[in-house]
């Protein structure tokens, strides 16, 4: 990869360092606009003055992604800069700028069972909740795959919703003759990237307990189906809904005394699984002894995966996380949804948006809307 020299190095005005975070960010962008008067730069590397979660991180990200449409990478001053640190940083930068750090051989050969043969969109869904002591808005993120038959590139719209509400409300949101929900724009972007509408939609849902499985099928899935029908009445893709759970007490150990962990890619789909349900455990990554596997529950399947093919797909999706050179503990779309919700939460100080959780009239406080991402970065992997 050929890297051009930097166009500019801009430092913060020392007199602004005790000013409010919003004023500091505004002053920096005044400098950037003077240096780039015609159009904003394509990429900004920001060295924060202190730890990553300092008070200017959220306003800075909001200005870059929502106001100006600039891809940005922040880093706090590291104690030691070595090759591993720089490599990890470049993995994130390359993914944000539209590159792919790795591809599965199965992707390149179009050999993923069922997925490579039929246009398939993969969704990851998660909801991030605020402090339990206060009625703070929750943030929902839905991540979807692009560039079928690849399964390595994703994008993510995010929205706010009522405090502590786990079910996502804005998957389908009709306003007059338009749908303003999250699913519509994901389907349109999928169609633009591969010139086809998906005929199969695989949904990975994170953060729900077994008592909420019925709500996923009765509230969220109908919204997604309605969004598809609203977009094109004669189009009816097949659906599959899978819940990924990490919050459980099951652990795997090898039946040996050599002190080693179960090998990466271990799958358990009988014996300790539900006697009537369709579920399995997977320890896709190499971890310490007693590593917690991910428990996958198949709630709905119109596609017709065999257990072996589904486990192979889940295993493959654990290797497409662009910030890592090895497998992670859960499928990448779920991890991306968690990252997107957490990062966009920083755009506005949701933890300061309401001290009492109620309005002056005594009712629930209105849920603040998040700013929309700029069109220049809307389809990027800004969450990496």
Automatic annotation (TrEMBL):
Q: Which residues form the Piwi domain?
A: 43-349
Task: Enumerate the CDD domains for this protein.
Answer: Piwi_ago-like
So which domain of life are we looking at?
Answer: Eukaryota
- Record's protein name: Piwi domain-containing protein
A Pfam family (short name) is Piwi
Q: Where is the signal peptide?
A: none
List GO molecular-function terms, semicolon-separated: nucleic acid binding
């Amino acid at each position: 990869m050929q890297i051009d020299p930097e166009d500019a190095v801009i430092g913060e005005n020392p007199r602004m360092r005790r000013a409010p975070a919003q004023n500091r960010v505004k002053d920096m962008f005044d400098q950037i606009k003077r240096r780039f008067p015609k159009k904003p730069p394509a990429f900004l590397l920001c060295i924060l003055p202190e730890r990553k979660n300092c008070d200017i991180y959220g306003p800075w990200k909001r200005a870059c992604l929502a106001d100006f449409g600039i891809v940005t990478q922040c880093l706090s001053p590291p104690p030691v800069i070595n090759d591993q640190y720089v490599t990890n940083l470049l993995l994130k930068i390359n993914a944000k700028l539209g590159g792919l750090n790795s591809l599965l051989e199965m992707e390149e050969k179009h050999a993923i069972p069922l997925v490579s043969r039929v246009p398939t969109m993969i969704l990851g869904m998660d909801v991030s909740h605020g402090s339990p002591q206060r009625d703070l808005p929750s943030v929902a993120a839905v991540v979807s795959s692009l560039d079928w038959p690849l399964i390595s590139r994703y994008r993510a719209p995010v929205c706010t919703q009522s405090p502590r509400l786990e079910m996502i409300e804005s998957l389908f949101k009709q306003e007059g003759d338009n749908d303003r929900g999250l699913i519509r724009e994901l389907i349109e972007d999928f169609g633009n990237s591969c010139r086809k509408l998906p005929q199969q939609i695989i949904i990975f849902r994170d953060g729900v307990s077994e008592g909420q499985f019925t709500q996923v099928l009765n509230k969220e899935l109908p919204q997604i189906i309605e969004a598809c029908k609203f977009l094109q009445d004669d189009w009816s893709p097949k659906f599959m809904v899978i819940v990924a759970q990490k919050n459980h007490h099951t652990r795997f150990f090898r039946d040996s005394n050599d002190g080693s962990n179960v090998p990466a890619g271990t799958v358990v789909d009988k014996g300790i699984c539900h006697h009537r349900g369709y579920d399995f455990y997977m320890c896709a990554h190499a971890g310490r002894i007693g590593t917690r596997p991910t428990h996958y529950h198949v709630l709905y399947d119109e596609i017709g995966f065999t257990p072996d093919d589904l486990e192979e797909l889940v295993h493959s999706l654990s290797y497409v996380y662009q910030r890592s050179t090895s497998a992670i503990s859960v499928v990448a779309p779920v991890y991306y949804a968690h990252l997107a919700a957490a990062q966009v939460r920083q755009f506005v100080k949701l933890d300061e948006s309401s001290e009492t959780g109620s309005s002056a009239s005594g009712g629930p406080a209105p849920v603040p809307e998040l700013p929309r991402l700029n069109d220049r970065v809307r389809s990027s992997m800004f969450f990496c």
